[in-house]
């Protein structure tokens, strides 16, 4: 059975008497390898869980380590943007509508939810429902009155530092009950029936698919009976009109692409890239921890914060590669040749994030890229380094960029070890569409990263399969839509 632990940034943050479960400092949880190997149920009570904060990374690495965690990174992202979680609010009104007029008049303007419990008995059913839906340890809920009714107006995570002694004592009691009874995850919505929205940014100078490829996706959909419509970020409110969402725009977490993916999933659409894949692939810190846990061969790496920078040279040597947690198309990736460059680059990266990633420098003439769809290899490319540069894409300060040459191979012509390693790495992420980057060295194949939104350009990735590449991807959408429809039919009760 998983051991419950409470993760805090400082032991002084726990204002109640001795806690009923073990307190662990966030720095220790992130750095001590003993925690990575243990079976744990992590209750994240860090002061802040904002994007790339210490609390955010505790939840992120807990998921990478296979720990049960409250709250999940997906939920933290949801609660950071009302446009995502707002669709859940109307369903909560039923718990407030059951109250009498006199009881509604007594309700506060806001209240706190502590692991599914609250201090106001009138609001207890709503508190339980909120915890089942969002599974956040500490939640602040704002109410509003309008035309005699009371409704939930807003939600946000609550910092443990804001609790007074009485509230902290209530939290401890709720914690004891939670550990004794366990918890249920958020209820899943039923999927809804074959229009496909393809999200595209027409102004992106380096899009994941060129115009010719987008046209081929539309044509492939038409051959399979799917109506593929290109949409943009302004079409967020139209998602419910579609049966599936295909994101052909560079994905990021604090970005509308993630909001589209998350909302589409909640609406029951078939989604590629799904939000879980975006969460797992866009953060290189998560990927490094995941590959390490499952012993997938990768360059020697070190997740570092301010305290670890001075140890990087003895661990990795020079030159070394430093990576921002998020980045795409070789952005946010730097090479440090000496201590001076290391200190400057690390300071810049840690100014935006509590953690970053350092890797051993592994020069090669080209990188392998294996496209993987639903657990099976789709295409194989070799991307050569950009001229006079150590990466496949060279970014200039002006915003311009240059790329190296590429060569596309049939899957059966690529080394078996490359394919097998790529598929194994992709399967750790999910069953979507991925591009796995690998290097071939004298010591064997090494996985560099897994991309949730791989390049699919006409003339490059389709050089071997041609139109069949687009047919297979859109065919996967059709397959998933048909599966969803069949499962609905099976669930439908027989007529009397």
Biggest β-sheet: strands ordered side by side in the sheet: 20-17-16-21-22
As a whole number of angstroms, the C-alpha radius of gyration is: 24 Å
* Beta-strand percent range: 15-25%
Uncertain regions spanning at least 5 consecutive residues: 185-193
Describe the global form: globular
User: Helix count, per DSSP?
Assistant: 17
Q: What is the end-to-end distance?
A: 45 Å
Helical proportion, percent range: 25-40%
Summarize model confidence as the mean pLDDT: 88
What are the defining features of this structure?
alpha/beta; 17 helices; 496 residues
Describe the structure concisely.
The protein contains 17 helices and 22 strands.
Please describe the topology of this protein:
Blueprint: E1 3-8, E2 22-25, H1 26-31, H2 33-37, E3 40-44, H3 54-64, E4 68-70, H4 73-79, H5 82-85, H6 93-97, H7 101-105, E5 110-114, H8 124-134, E6 138-146, E7 149-157, H9 165-181, E8 195-199, H10 211-223, E9 227-231, E10 244-247, H11 256-266, E11 270-272, H12 275-282, H13 284-293, E12 301-304, H14 312-316, E13 320-323, E14 333-336, H15 339-352, E15 356-360, E16 366-373, E17 376-384, E18 393-395, E19 401-403, E20 406-409, H16 416-429, E21 433-441, E22 444-451, H17 467-491
Parallel strand pairs: 1-2, 1-3, 3-4, 8-9, 8-10, 10-11
Antiparallel strand pairs: 5-6, 6-7, 12-15, 13-14, 13-15, 16-17, 16-21, 17-20, 18-19, 21-22
Helix pairs in contact: 3-13, 10-17
């Amino acid at each position: 059975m998983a051991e419950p632990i409470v993760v805090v940034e400082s032991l002084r943050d726990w204002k109640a008497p001795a806690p009923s479960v073990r307190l662990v400092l966030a720095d220790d949880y992130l750095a001590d390898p003993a925690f990575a190997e243990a079976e744990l149920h992590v209750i994240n009570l860090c002061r802040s869980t904002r994007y790339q904060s210490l609390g955010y990374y505790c939840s992120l690495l807990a998921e990478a380590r296979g720990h049960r965690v409250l709250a999940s990174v997906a939920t933290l992202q949801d609660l950071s943007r009302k446009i995502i979680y707002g669709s859940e609010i109307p369903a909560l009104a039923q718990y407030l509508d059951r109250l009498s007029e006199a009881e509604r008049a007594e309700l506060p303007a806001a209240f706190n939810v502590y692991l599914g419990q609250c201090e106001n008995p009138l609001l207890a059913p709503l508190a339980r429902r909120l915890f089942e839906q969002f599974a956040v340890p500490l939640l602040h809920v704002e109410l509003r009155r309008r035309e005699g009714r009371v409704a939930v107006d807003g939600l946000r995570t609550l910092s443990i530092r804001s609790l007074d002694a009485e509230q902290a004592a209530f939290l401890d009691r709720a914690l004891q009950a939670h550990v004794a009874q366990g918890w249920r995850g958020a209820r899943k919505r039923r999927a809804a029936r074959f229009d496909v929205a393809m999200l595209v940014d027409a102004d992106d100078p380096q899009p994941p698919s060129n115009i010719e490829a987008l046209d081929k996706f539309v044509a492939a959909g038409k051959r399979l009976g799917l109506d593929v419509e290109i949409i943009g970020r302004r079409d967020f409110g139209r998602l419910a009109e579609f049966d599936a969402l295909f994101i052909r725009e560079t994905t990021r977490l604090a970005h509308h692409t993630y909001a589209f993916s998350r909302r589409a999933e909640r609406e029951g659409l078939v989604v590629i890239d799904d939000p879980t894949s975006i969460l797992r692939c866009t953060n290189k810190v998560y990927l490094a921890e995941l590959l390490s846990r499952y012993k997938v061969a990768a360059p020697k790496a070190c997740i570092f914060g301010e305290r670890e920078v001075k140890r990087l040279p003895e661990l990795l040597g020079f030159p070394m590669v430093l990576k921002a947690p998020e980045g795409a198309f070789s952005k946010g990736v730097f090479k440090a040749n000496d201590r001076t460059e290391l200190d400057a680059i690390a300071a810049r990266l840690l100014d935006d994030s509590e953690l970053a990633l350092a890797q051993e420098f592994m020069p090669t003439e080209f990188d392998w890229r294996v496209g993987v769809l639903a657990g099976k290899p789709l295409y194989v490319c070799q991307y050569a380094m950009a001229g006079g540069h150590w990466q496949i894409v060279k970014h200039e300060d002006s915003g311009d960029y240059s790329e190296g040459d590429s060569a596309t191979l049939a899957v059966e012509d690529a080394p078996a070890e490359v394919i097998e390693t790529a598929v194994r790495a992709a399967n750790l992420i999910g069953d979507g569409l991925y591009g796995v980057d690998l290097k071939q060295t004298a010591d064997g194949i090494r996985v560099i990263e897994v991309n949730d939104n791989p390049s699919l350009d006409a003339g490059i990735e389709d050089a071997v399969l041609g139109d069949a590449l687009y047919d297979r991807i859109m065919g996967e959408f059709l397959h998933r839509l048909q599966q969803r429809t069949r499962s609905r039919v099976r669930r439908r009760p027989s007529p009397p």
